Amino acid sequence: MNTSPTAALTQEISRWYGSYLDALPEIVSGEVPKLFDYFAVPLLSITSSGAVSLRDAAEVVNQFVTMFEGTHLPEHGHALECGHTIRILNARAAIIAATWEWRDGKGEIGKSIPYENLVADSGNGWRIVVMTQLDPGLGATAASPLPLESRAVPINPQLGA
User: Fold this and answer.
1) Which band of pLDDT confidence, cut at 50, 70 and 90, is reported for residue 141?
2) Which of 6, 18, 116, 130 has the greatest count of CB atoms below 10 A from its CB?
3) Which of 34, 31, 53, 50 is nearest to 42 (CA)?
4) Which stretches of the chain are DSSP H helices?
5) 43 burial via Cβ count (<10 Å: 0-12, 13-18, 19+)
6) Torsion over CA: 47, 53, 59, 60 (sign)
7) Given a cut of 70, is residue 144 above it in pLDDT?
Protein backbone atom coordinates (compact mmCIF):
# COMPACT_ATOMS: atom_id res chain seq x y z
CA MET A 1 0.00 0.00 0.00
CA ASN A 2 1.36 3.41 -1.01
CA THR A 3 1.40 5.71 2.02
CA SER A 4 3.15 8.67 0.37
CA PRO A 5 1.73 12.16 0.94
CA THR A 6 0.69 12.22 -2.74
CA ALA A 7 -1.22 8.93 -2.42
CA ALA A 8 -2.96 10.14 0.75
CA LEU A 9 -3.88 13.43 -0.92
CA THR A 10 -5.18 11.61 -4.01
CA GLN A 11 -7.35 9.37 -1.80
CA GLU A 12 -8.68 12.39 0.10
CA ILE A 13 -9.61 14.20 -3.12
CA SER A 14 -11.10 11.03 -4.60
CA ARG A 15 -13.37 10.60 -1.54
CA TRP A 16 -14.42 14.26 -1.79
CA TYR A 17 -15.09 13.88 -5.53
CA GLY A 18 -17.19 10.76 -4.90
CA SER A 19 -19.34 12.71 -2.46
CA TYR A 20 -19.64 15.47 -5.10
CA LEU A 21 -20.95 12.93 -7.64
CA ASP A 22 -23.44 11.66 -5.04
CA ALA A 23 -24.64 15.24 -4.38
CA LEU A 24 -24.75 16.32 -8.03
CA PRO A 25 -28.46 15.48 -8.60
CA GLU A 26 -29.38 17.75 -5.66
CA ILE A 27 -27.06 20.51 -6.89
CA VAL A 28 -28.53 20.38 -10.41
CA SER A 29 -31.99 20.59 -8.81
CA GLY A 30 -30.96 23.87 -7.17
CA GLU A 31 -29.95 22.69 -3.68
CA VAL A 32 -27.87 25.80 -2.95
CA PRO A 33 -26.49 24.76 0.48
CA LYS A 34 -24.96 21.62 -1.10
CA LEU A 35 -23.45 23.77 -3.83
CA PHE A 36 -21.12 25.51 -1.40
CA ASP A 37 -19.74 22.15 -0.24
CA TYR A 38 -18.28 21.61 -3.71
CA PHE A 39 -17.86 24.89 -5.58
CA ALA A 40 -15.93 28.06 -4.95
CA VAL A 41 -17.93 31.14 -5.81
CA PRO A 42 -16.93 32.89 -7.96
CA LEU A 43 -16.32 29.92 -10.25
CA LEU A 44 -14.66 30.15 -13.65
CA SER A 45 -16.34 28.07 -16.37
CA ILE A 46 -14.48 27.66 -19.68
CA THR A 47 -15.63 26.13 -22.98
CA SER A 48 -14.58 26.70 -26.58
CA SER A 49 -17.47 29.19 -26.75
CA GLY A 50 -15.97 31.38 -24.05
CA ALA A 51 -15.15 31.84 -20.42
CA VAL A 52 -17.50 33.15 -17.78
CA SER A 53 -17.03 33.97 -14.14
CA LEU A 54 -20.05 32.68 -12.21
CA ARG A 55 -20.27 35.20 -9.40
CA ASP A 56 -23.03 33.78 -7.21
CA ALA A 57 -24.78 30.54 -6.37
CA ALA A 58 -27.69 31.19 -8.75
CA GLU A 59 -25.30 31.57 -11.69
CA VAL A 60 -23.49 28.32 -10.79
CA VAL A 61 -26.79 26.42 -10.50
CA ASN A 62 -27.99 27.91 -13.81
CA GLN A 63 -24.75 26.78 -15.48
CA PHE A 64 -25.40 23.20 -14.36
CA VAL A 65 -29.05 23.27 -15.37
CA THR A 66 -28.00 24.53 -18.82
CA MET A 67 -25.23 21.93 -19.07
CA PHE A 68 -27.53 19.05 -18.16
CA GLU A 69 -30.72 20.24 -19.88
CA GLY A 70 -31.91 17.87 -22.53
CA THR A 71 -30.62 14.86 -20.65
CA HIS A 72 -34.10 14.22 -19.27
CA LEU A 73 -35.77 13.96 -22.67
CA PRO A 74 -37.28 10.53 -23.46
CA GLU A 75 -34.53 9.80 -26.00
CA HIS A 76 -31.86 10.42 -23.34
CA GLY A 77 -31.74 7.73 -20.70
CA HIS A 78 -29.24 9.22 -18.29
CA ALA A 79 -25.90 10.94 -17.86
CA LEU A 80 -22.99 8.90 -16.54
CA GLU A 81 -19.59 9.99 -15.26
CA CYS A 82 -17.22 7.40 -16.74
CA GLY A 83 -14.36 7.40 -14.27
CA HIS A 84 -11.84 10.05 -13.42
CA THR A 85 -8.15 10.68 -12.87
CA ILE A 86 -6.59 13.00 -10.34
CA ARG A 87 -3.34 14.84 -10.93
CA ILE A 88 -1.87 16.51 -7.86
CA LEU A 89 -0.42 19.96 -8.60
CA ASN A 90 0.66 20.83 -5.07
CA ALA A 91 -0.56 20.33 -1.49
CA ARG A 92 -3.58 22.58 -2.12
CA ALA A 93 -4.50 22.04 -5.78
CA ALA A 94 -5.26 19.21 -8.19
CA ILE A 95 -6.81 18.59 -11.60
CA ILE A 96 -9.66 16.08 -11.88
CA ALA A 97 -10.15 14.84 -15.46
CA ALA A 98 -13.29 12.90 -16.37
CA THR A 99 -15.78 12.26 -19.16
CA TRP A 100 -19.56 12.48 -19.03
CA GLU A 101 -21.56 10.29 -21.36
CA TRP A 102 -25.22 10.71 -22.16
CA ARG A 103 -26.84 7.37 -22.97
CA ASP A 104 -30.22 6.56 -24.43
CA GLY A 105 -32.70 4.03 -23.06
CA LYS A 106 -30.81 1.23 -24.85
CA GLY A 107 -27.50 2.22 -23.27
CA GLU A 108 -26.10 3.65 -26.51
CA ILE A 109 -23.79 6.64 -26.10
CA GLY A 110 -25.40 9.73 -27.60
CA LYS A 111 -22.94 12.37 -26.46
CA SER A 112 -19.59 12.31 -24.71
CA ILE A 113 -18.00 15.37 -23.07
CA PRO A 114 -14.52 15.30 -21.51
CA TYR A 115 -13.78 17.92 -18.89
CA GLU A 116 -11.22 18.94 -16.30
CA ASN A 117 -11.83 20.66 -13.00
CA LEU A 118 -9.21 22.57 -11.06
CA VAL A 119 -9.90 21.90 -7.39
CA ALA A 120 -8.34 23.72 -4.46
CA ASP A 121 -8.25 23.23 -0.72
CA SER A 122 -10.21 26.23 0.55
CA GLY A 123 -9.15 25.72 4.15
CA ASN A 124 -12.69 24.46 4.67
CA GLY A 125 -12.54 21.49 2.30
CA TRP A 126 -11.93 20.97 -1.40
CA ARG A 127 -13.78 23.17 -3.89
CA ILE A 128 -14.01 23.29 -7.69
CA VAL A 129 -12.58 26.66 -8.73
CA VAL A 130 -12.36 26.21 -12.52
CA MET A 131 -14.52 23.95 -14.73
CA THR A 132 -13.18 23.37 -18.24
CA GLN A 133 -15.10 21.50 -20.91
CA LEU A 134 -12.57 20.01 -23.31
CA ASP A 135 -13.15 20.24 -27.05
CA PRO A 136 -12.64 16.85 -28.78
CA GLY A 137 -12.93 18.68 -32.11
CA LEU A 138 -9.61 20.30 -31.30
CA GLY A 139 -8.09 16.98 -30.26
CA ALA A 140 -8.28 17.97 -26.59
CA THR A 141 -7.72 15.11 -24.19
CA ALA A 142 -7.17 14.93 -20.46
CA ALA A 143 -3.42 15.10 -21.08
CA SER A 144 -1.95 16.92 -24.04
CA PRO A 145 -0.51 14.50 -26.62
CA LEU A 146 1.74 17.28 -27.92
CA PRO A 147 5.21 17.67 -26.44
CA LEU A 148 5.51 21.29 -25.42
CA GLU A 149 8.89 22.96 -25.49
CA SER A 150 9.89 26.44 -24.53
CA ARG A 151 13.22 28.16 -24.62
CA ALA A 152 15.09 28.80 -21.41
CA VAL A 153 14.52 32.31 -20.14
CA PRO A 154 16.98 33.58 -17.55
CA ILE A 155 15.32 35.72 -14.91
CA ASN A 156 17.71 37.97 -13.05
CA PRO A 157 15.80 40.44 -10.93
CA GLN A 158 17.55 43.75 -10.44
CA LEU A 159 16.97 44.29 -6.74
CA GLY A 160 17.10 47.88 -5.62
CA ALA A 161 17.41 49.21 -9.17
Assistant:
1) low
2) 116
3) 53
4) 5-28, 32-35, 57-68
5) buried
6) positive
7) no
